[in-house]
Write a structure and sequence with these properties.
This protein has helices at about 1-10, 25-55, 80-85, 85-90, 100-105; strands at about 15-20, 75. By secondary structure, the protein is mostly helical. The chain has one domain (about 1-80). The longest helix is centred in the middle third of the chain and has 30 residues, at about 25-55. Helix 1 (about 1-10) crosses helix 2 (about 25-55). A two-stranded parallel ribbon has the order 1-2.
């Protein structure tokens, strides 16, 4: 699984990774696991960029990949809170404010 996550991060470069709390305490463990992997990938990207700059393969002015070495932000979220902010939630619970909709789902 570690390699698959690394491959995904290299290929897609996400800005955000959401970890569901539905797994309970395991969600915190998964968040720590993902923090380690994303930090490793960000560090490897940084080293790759520095090597490319040092070998003259890339100009310092080339800013296309400047954000590549930034690790994605990790958030622990509840599925209900994501649903509460969705368009579907607005249709199903039009009388409730967004903050109250997730109470209807749980």
């Amino acid at each position: 699984m570690h390699n698959q996550i690394e491959e995904f991060l290299w290929a897609h470069k996400p800005d955000l990774i959401a970890v569901s709390t539905s797994a309970g305490p395991q969600a915190k463990g998964m968040k720590r696991f993902l923090e380690d992997i994303t930090a490793d990938v960000a560090s490897a990207r940084r080293r790759q960029r520095e090597h490319a700059l040092a070998s003259g393969m890339v100009d310092e002015d080339d800013d296309d990949d400047d954000d590549d070495e930034a690790a994605p932000v990790l958030h622990v979220v509840t599925v209900a809170s994501i649903f509460a902010a969705s368009a579907r939630s607005t249709l199903e619970f039009p009388d409730y404010q967004v903050g109250l909709r997730w109470l209807q789902v749980v």
